Amino acid sequence: MDCILVHYGEIGLKGENRPYFERALVKTLRQFEFKKVYKRYGRIVCDLIKSKENKEPYLNKIIEQLSLIPGITSFSFAIKCDLKLDNIIKNVKQIIKNKKFDSFRIQTKRSNKNFKHNSQQTNTIVGQEIVNLGHKVDLDNPELTIYIEITEVETFVYTRKNKGIGGLPVPTAGKVICSLSGGIDSPVAAFMSMKRGCQVIAVHFFNSTQNEAGLLTKLESIAQELSKIQLSLKLYTVDFEQIQKQIIMNIPAEYRMIIYRRFMMFIANKIAVKEKAKAIITGDSIGQVASQTLENINAIYDASQLPVLAPLIGLNKQEITGLAKKIGTYKHSILPYGDCCSYMIAKHPITRSELDEIITLEKNIENKKELIDSALENTKIKKYNLS
Ligand code: ATP
Ligand code: MG
User: Fold this and answer.
1) Residue 341 has what pLDDT?
2) Distance, CA 334 to ligand 2 centroid (Å)?
3) Is the pLDDT of residue 15 over 90?
C-alpha cells in the first residue's frame, strides 16, 4: 500500500468555509507518522513511510489513531497510480492478489471528468478482467468491493473502508471548558464536544486532603486517552479543599452538591475567560443522579455566564458506557477513586431545588470571591500530548 486515503463527509458541505475545515484536518493528520499529507480533490492523502509500509505495528497504530480523529468519516489503505487504464487494472489485480473471495463488485468514483471512461464503463472494463480470473460479479451482496477513485492527477485503488467518527476537525468550532470528573460520563462529554470540532480544555476539582495520588493518576490516564482524540489536552486541577470546608460549615447537607457544583461553574467561567473559551461542557444526563433533575440543572447552570452544554443530556447510561469503552476512558473511570465531593453528599440530596432558595443559601458563604480567587491560585496546569 502507498497511502491512506481519508474521506471527510461533513466538512465537504461547508461551502466557502470548506478550505478552513480541510486545512485543520490536514494539520491534524500531519501530527502522525506519515511521509507526506496533502489535499486531493475532496480527499486527503497521507503517504505512508516507505520503509514501514508493510510493518503491521505501524499500520495498526495508524488505524487505531485515525479511528478517533474528529472530521474523518472513513479512511482506507490504498495503492496509488497514474490515470492509465492498464495501470489501474494492474493495481486492482495487485490489491486482490492474496485475497480469498468468490463474488465482488467494483465501485468507481470519478472526479476527473476528462478521464476517457465514465464510472460505469470503468466498472465494466475492470470488472471483466476480474471475471476472467474466475470471480463472479455480485452487485448487491459481494464478498469483496473494490473501490477505484479517479482524480485529476492520480488514481487510488482500495478494498476496505475503515470507519471514522465523522464530525468536524478540532479546533474549528473554538475552545470549550469541560468540567471533567473522574467518572464515566464527563470524559465522554469531552469526546462528544471534540467530535463537533471543539478544542476541549479540561478542569478537574479535587480535595488535596483526600486520596489525591490515586485520583490524580486516574485523571492523568483519562487525559492521556482524550489526547488521542484531540492530540493534546490541557488539564487544570483545582484544589477545592477550602471551598469544600466552607460549604460543609455553612450549607445544609442536602444542598451541598448544588452549591458545590455552582462553585465549579464560577471557577470554570474564570478559566474560560483566561482561555478565551466560549462554553462550559458537563457530563450531565437528565435524571441520572440527584444533581441532574431539571430543577437542579437549572440551579447549577445559573452560576455560569457562558452557555453550559451537556452533550450527554439525552443518552442512557448504557449508551454512555459504550462510548466510554470505545474511546478508552472506561477502564480508568471505573477505578475505585471517588469524586472528591462524594463524601460530602447527603444520603438524600434535594432533588427539586428552587433557584431563589439556593442563591439565598449561598450567601451564607461570605468570602466567596476570595475563595474562588485562592482556588484559582492553587490550580495546576498540565498538558498531555499524543504518545
Ligand atoms: P461523571 O461520570 O462525569 O462524574 P456523574 O453521573 O457521576 O458524572 P455527577 O457526579 O453529578 O454525575 O457530575 C455531573 C457533572 O459535574 C460531571 O459530568 C462533570 O461535568 C461535573 N463534575 C462533577 N464532579 C466534578 C469534579 N470533581 N471535577 C470536575 N467536574 C465535575
Ligand atoms: Mg461523578
Assistant:
1) 61
2) 11
3) no
The residue whose CA is least distant from atom 4 of ligand 1 is: 183
Q: Which ligand is nearest to the CA of 239?
A: 1
- The three cell numbers locating residue 359: 442563591
Contact 285, 315 (CB under 8 A): yes
Residue 340 has pLDDT above 90, yes or no: no
Give residue-wise pLDDT tens across range 302-338. Answer: 999 999 999 999 999 999 999 999 999 999 999 886 6
Atom of ligand 1 nearest to the CA of 206: 27
C-alpha cell at 350: 434535594
Q: Go through the chain and tell me how many residues it has.
A: 387
| Confidence label for 351 from pLDDT (cuts 50, 70 and 90) | confident
Which tens digit of pLDDT belongs to each residue from 259-269? 999 999 999 99
High-pLDDT (> 70) share of the chain, %: 96
How far apart (Å, rounded) are the C-alpha atoms in residues 182 and 188?
11
From 180, 181, 292, mutation site for ligand 1 pocket: most ligand atoms within 8 A of C-beta? 181
234 sits in which H/E element? strand 232-239
Distance 183 CA to ligand 2 centre (A): 5
Query: What are the grid coordinates assigned to 289, written together?
Result: 443522579
User: What residues does each domain of the chain span?
Assistant: 3-163, 174-385
Centre of ligand 1 from the C-alpha of residue 343, in Å = 14
Residue 7: exposed, middle, or buried by beta-carbon count in 10 A (0-12, 13-18, 19+)? middle
123 lines ligand 1 (CB under 6 A): no
Class at the top of the CATH hierarchy for domain 3-163: alpha beta
What dotted CATH number matches 174-385?
3.40.50.620
Ligand 1 pocket test, pick from 177, 185, 343 with the greatest ligand atom count within 8 Å of Cβ, gives 185
What number does the ligand 1 atom closest to the CA of 186 have? 3
